[in-house]
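User: Teach me something about this protein's shape.
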Amino acid sequence: MRSRANRRGFGQAVTTISAVAAGIATSGLLIHAVSVALATSRCRAGKPASPPDPAPPPASIVQPLRGVETFSRDTLASIFALDYPDYEILFCVADADDPILPLVSGFIAAHPNVPAQLLIGDDKVSANPKLNNCVKGWKAARHDWIVIADSNVLMPPDYIQRLRARWRDDTGIVCSPPIGSAPEGFGAELECAFLNTFEARWQYAGERVGYGFAQGKTMLWRREVMERGGGIEALGVEIAEDAASTKLVHRQNLRAHLVDRPFAQPLGVRRFSDVWKRQLRWARLRRATFPLYYAPEAFTSSLPFALCAMIGADELHLSAFEALIGALAIWYVLEAALAKIAGWPLSWRSPFAWILRDALLPWLWVQGWAGDNFEWRGNAMTVAEERLADAG
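Assistant: First, the predicted structure itself:
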């Protein structure tokens, strides 16, 4: 009797576990579908443009540069071709021997109709080399609307208009996550898998439900917002200027908004090691600056829910294999739909890149907690508070 009761209890426990696992898998797929829908509503390629501003204010673009990149000519050409009536460009270079200088000087000379300056020098206000490079540009900017944009952003002609179109009464900053484009090889496809249908998707979904975060790739500021927060030097309180920007605007009860149809970053060839280092850097920065938001990232890939689908296969009236394949198919078909509608890179290699990304995400999450150090453009950096204090 006792043995029969034990078997019955064990069977009930298995049934309960199966039901719970099936519920988790179904909930995960539903949340994934909602995040895709929220991102698609903001990123679709055919999204109508906002009505033009009849009297757009002048704007300044501060762009830090270091070294010649694969697409430097393309990105420099795009910044000089903006369809905006009154803007200036302030190129910032820390090293007087930087090889990018002749190329930038040539573009400035070839476009005398666009006010542009090349500023050389380094202001050591923080442990962040990019921020240090930007300080002189911010201080030299003549206008109240200021964009800080990375050198690898490929700017469309309506770049500034699209940023300003997202400004609201409660806005403190408008940003654009990087969208990988022009991938060459599987390493670049993997980077697109991280940047586009994973990171950008979650950023847009988060913003739509009230959790917007700044992204350092492109940041539109009003000077008064930055100055009320302590000036550009105040971004040095965090190792990442976008994390500091988020906290600066939140302290003023303002919000970080994302641009509609985010801007492309052409990739070209990417080595796997470079993709991993970039993602590891961002993971450790997120963990250090927003640990409570970083913690749930362990459950943002397809793997936990695909495994739950397998465990709950009986409850779903499927075999374990059918449940696994079905969950993954639904997950990646939704990602493919987002990439297709948004006009992002999509090829036969994309599903393999998504699968590899999801296999790497748990280890990336662990490594985000496991260390403080990372490398950025040859600079050894750390998120450790005591070393940051020394660097400051």
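Now, about its shape. The chain has 14 helices and eleven strands. The first strand starts at residue 59 and ends at 65. If you'd like, I can walk through any region in more detail.
User: That's plenty for now, thanks!
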